[in-house]
Design goal:
With about 150 residues, the chain is mainly α. It has one domain. Helix content is about 35%, strand content about 10%. It is built from two helices and three strands. The protein has a three-stranded antiparallel β-sheet with strand order 1-2-3. Strand 1 and strand 2 form a beta hairpin. The longest helix has about 45 residues.
Length: about 150
């Protein structure tokens, strides 16, 4: 009976560690995908001097003789498992960034890349905003409308 209780406690603690590790993997994937969207928006903006109007525009821009691909594929949000990214509106139209719709609290609270500065203050994954801001505009949008 004692062995069964100890085995149950061991399995419970293992499940908690495995869950924590899975959450950290999702966070790493969110950072990768969010930064990929940010780079794609920057690439689009550099070429067009305006922001994209849809995520699909980043996949294949057919206005050129050779279609331009700013983003390899439309990634799903690893926190929600859906392609339901919230878009951050840009001044003058289009969107200048994306963020997750997840209200879960992040595990990672430090040691972010310079371009992800401010994420250490985030209370939820939705506060990790991946924004492209050209010189002259603020780098971070505090309160942004979401689509």
């Amino acid at each position: 009976m004692i062995f069964v209780a100890l085995a149950g406690a061991g399995l419970a603690s293992y499940a908690q560690v495995a869950s924590h590790a899975a959450q950290r993997e999702k966070e790493a994937e969110l950072l990768f995908r969010g930064n990929a969207f940010q780079a794609a928006i920057a690439s689009y903006y550099k070429k067009e001097q305006r922001y994209p109007t849809s995520l699909e525009t980043l996949l294949e821009d057919k206005r050129y003789p050779m279609p331009v691909r700013h983003l390899r594929k439309l990634y799903a949000d690893p926190m929600t498992g859906e392609r339901d990214w919230a878009l951050i509106d840009a001044p003058g139209g289009g969107f200048m960034g994306v963020h997750s719709r997840s209200d879960k609290a992040p595990i990672k609270t430090g040691n972010f890349l310079v371009k992800n500065q401010g994420f250490d203050q985030a209370q939820r994954y939705a506060d990790w905003k991946f924004v492209h801001s050209p010189p002259g505009l603020p780098a971070r949008v505090e309160k942004s409308p979401s689509k």
